[in-house]
Amino acid sequence: MGGRSRTALFLVMLMTFAGFVSLAADADGSKNKETCSSDSTEDCGCKQSRDKDSKKKDADEVKEADDKPKSEFYEPREGDTPYKRTNQMVYVPGGTFTMGTDKPIFVADGEGPARQVKVDPYYMDKYEVSNAEFELFVNQTGYKTEAESFGNSFVMENYLSEEVKSEITQMVASAPWWLPVDGADWRHPEGKDSNIKDRMDHPVLHVSWNDAVAYCKWAGKRLPTEAEFEFACRGGRENRLFPWGNSVNPKGQHWMNIWQGEFPKENTGEDGYTMTAPVTEFPEQNKFGLKNIIGNVWEWTQDWWEIQHTPTFKDNPKGPLSGDDKVKKGGSFQCTIQYCYRYRCEARSQNTPDSSAHNLGFRCAASELPSYLKGSEKDEL
Ligand SMILES: *[C@@H]1O[C@H](CO)[C@@H](O)[C@H](O)[C@H]1NC(C)=O
Ligand SMILES: [Ca+2]
Ligand SMILES: [Ca+2]
After folding, report:
1. Where would one find the signal peptide in this protein (predicted)?
2. Who's near 32: CB < 8 A, 6+ residues apart?
3. What is the CB-side half-sphere exposure of residue 293 using CA atoms within 13 A?
4. How far is the C-alpha of 362 from the C-alpha of 300, rounded, in Å?
5. Full-model pTM
6. Which end of the chain has fewer beta carbons closer than 10 Å to its terminal beta carbon, N or C?
7. Can you tell me whether residue 179 is helix, strand or coil?
8. Out of 53-67, 167-181, 327-341, least confident range
C-alpha cells in the first residue's frame, strides 16, 4: 500500500493518544481544544480511510458471506474443534440507565452529558472473541481479514522483535511507540516471526470493524450498539467508573487487564499480563457475568462515532446514520491512569472501520439467542 494511506492510518492511531494530551493539559489547569478526538478531524486527517479500493473489495466479500443460507453460518458443537468453546452468551435484561457522564474526563471524546437511555433485552457474548473462535470462523468460511489484505497492521514497539523493528522505516512523531508492521495480522500479532499457538484462548487481534461484522453475522449474532455495550458494562450500577464500582482493585485484587508501570517505558505486569490475557481470565466484572468488558482489548461497537450528544431521553439509540469512524469501548491492556484512562464504562474512542491494531478486538451481541446456543447457558467453563 502507498504512503498516503499509511499516513492516514498513523493519524487514525493518533486519535487514541489525543486524550492523553488533554488529560495532561487538564491536570495543570489549562484547556486543550485541538485534539483528533475533537471536531477538528479534518485538520488531522482522521476522516481518511486507509485504502478505499480494498475497502470496497472487502465489503463485497462480506456481502457474499451474507448471502449464504443460515444453516451454513454455524455448525460445530463441542467436540468438533480441539478448543474449549467460548461463544456463550449472557442474558442482559434491558432497562433504562444513565449513559455517559456529567463529569467527563475526556470532554473531547463526547463522554458527556449524562442522558437517560432505554435498551431492550438482548444477549451479549460473555467473552471477547478468542483466536480459537475466530479460527473456527475462518476454517468454515475462508474469510480473509482486512489486515491480511492490506499486508500490515499496527503494533506497539515494546512487543516487537529486534528483527521486525529493524525493518520498519516509518514512525509517528507524537506516538513513536505505534508502528505499522508488515505481516502483522490475527495469526501473527507481533509480525511475521510471531504466532498464536499458545494464545488460542486469547482475544483475536488485528480485526477491523468490517471483519468483526462478518464474524458476528456468521455466528448468527451482531455487534452491540454503544448503548448496549455501556448498559452491559454498568451492570445496573449508576454513576460508577467500573463495572463493579469505583475501586480500581476491589479487595486488593486485579479485576481487569490494564497496564501497570510508567507508560510506555515500563510494564510491570502486576495483574499477571503484560499483553493480552485469556478471554476467560479475571473475575466476572458485574452481575451480568461478563468477562473483560473493561480492559484486555478494546471492543468494536455498531455505532458511528459522534461527540455531540443531547441530554434528552433516547429509546434504543443506534448512533448517527453515517460517519467516518466507529466507536470502540472498554480500553485495553495498554491503558493506565496517566495515559489512556479509558477503561471506564462511559469512556469511548474511535477508529475507521477498516483499521486494525494489536489492542483492538470485539465481542458480539444478539437480540435473540442463536438456536445452537439454547441450553448452553449452563456450560460453565
Ligand atoms: C482449523 O482447521 C485446522 C486445519 O484443519 C485445524 O488444525 C484447527 O484445529 C481448526 N481450528 C479450529 C478452531 O477448529
Ligand atoms: Ca496487564
Ligand atoms: Ca475488553
Report:
1. 1-29
2. 21, 22, 24, 25, 26, 108
3. 33
4. 5
5. 0.84
6. C
7. strand
8. 53-67
Q: Which of 74, 75, 78, 81 to mutate to test the pocket of ligand 1 (most atoms within 8 A of CB)?
A: 81
80: Cβ contacts below 8 Å, ≥ 6 apart = none
pLDDT at 171: 75
The grid coordinates listed for 39 are 471536531
Cα–Cα separations (whole angstroms), residue 372 to 22, 60, 100: 46, 27, 35
Q: Express each pLDDT in 189-221 by its tens digit.
A: 999 999 999 999 999 999 999 999 999 999 999
Q: Please, are residues 283 and 316 in contact by the beta-carbon 8 Å criterion? A: no
Question: Rounded mean pLDDT of the chain?
Answer: 84
Distance (angstroms) between ligand 1 centre and the Cα of 76 equals 11
128: left (phi over 0), alpha (psi -120 to 50) or beta: beta
Beta carbons within 10 angstroms of residue 82's beta carbon: 7
Q: Which parts of 153-219 fold into alpha helices (H)? A: 162-166, 209-218
